[in-house]
């Protein structure tokens, strides 16, 4: 009986890291973008640029020159929909979907930080007809502002009457009234629970033997007359 040597098993060399041809995949990406552009007539960047120009009042001929950046004359309420339940569907308009809706740019932002970045950004302010340059205050304007603050202090305005950042006093009063109502509801619930516990104790005391209660050291629960 002759011994025939076995052939070595063919193995797979998986010790080396797989390499990718970046130029090949880059070319495939260009071809895919070109096909989408030929199909739709414009690429995604062109569509975004077109929409921005459609919202820009300068390119639409509504204004001749952009104004400088101005302070908002309204208060941003980021917590207006906090704690509320909302039904969201795929076919609903953007203004009714979950998130923060910008009516100027007709877009939805998913969180408050993105919304603040958007309304403070260049394209949103361009749609409002403003540049990102801030008007430089003169010495006379600074003096006038300081005089207004001094006059407001002399007039005897209370701290609660002076609200920074354009906060409406009615909104603050409504929030305070809501807090008071919440505290009153909480207090009523606590009183109701205390009465229920007192009633349960009285019922238990009525059902127990007085001699047994005296033996156990209970002199009563304070519900009877002395």
Automatic annotation (TrEMBL):
Residues 217-226 have a biased composition (Gly residues). It comes from the Eukaryota. Keywords: Metal-binding, Nucleus, Zinc, Zinc-finger. GO terms for biological process: mRNA splicing, via spliceosome. The keyword Zinc-finger applies. The keyword Transmembrane does not apply. Residues 97-131 form the U1-type domain. Residues 15-58, 150-186, 193-202 have a biased composition (Basic and acidic residues). One of its GO terms (molecular function) is zinc ion binding. Residues 1-60, 150-226 are annotated as: Disordered. One of its GO terms (cellular component) is spliceosomal complex. This is U1-type domain-containing protein. It comes from Chlamydomonas leiostraca.
């Amino acid at each position: 009986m002759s011994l025939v040597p076995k052939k070595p098993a063919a193995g797979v060399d998986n010790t080396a890291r797989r390499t990718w041809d970046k130029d090949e995949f880059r070319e495939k990406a260009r071809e895919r973008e070109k096909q989408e552009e030929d199909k739709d007539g414009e690429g995604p960047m062109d569509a975004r640029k077109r929409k921005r120009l459609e919202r820009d009042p300068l390119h639409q001929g509504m204004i001749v020159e952009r104004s400088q950046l101005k302070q908002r004359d309204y208060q941003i309420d980021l917590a207006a929909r906090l704690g509320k339940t909302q039904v969201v569907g795929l076919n609903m308009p953007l203004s009714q979907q979950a998130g923060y809706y910008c009516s100027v740019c007709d877009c939805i932002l998913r969180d408050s930080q993105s919304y603040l970045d958007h309304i403070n950004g260049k394209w949103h302010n361009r749609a409002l007809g403003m540049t990102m340059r801030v008007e430089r205050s003169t010495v006379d304007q600074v003096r006038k502002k300081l005089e207004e603050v001094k006059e407001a202090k002399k007039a005897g305005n209370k701290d609660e009457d002076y609200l920074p950042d354009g906060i409406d006093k009615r909104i603050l009063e409504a929030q305070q009234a809501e807090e008071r109502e919440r505290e009153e509801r909480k207090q009523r619930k606590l009183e109701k629970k205390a009465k229920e516990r007192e009633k349960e104790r009285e019922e238990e005391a009525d059902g127990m033997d007085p001699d047994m209660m005296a033996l156990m050291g209970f002199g009563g629960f304070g519900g009877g007359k002395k």
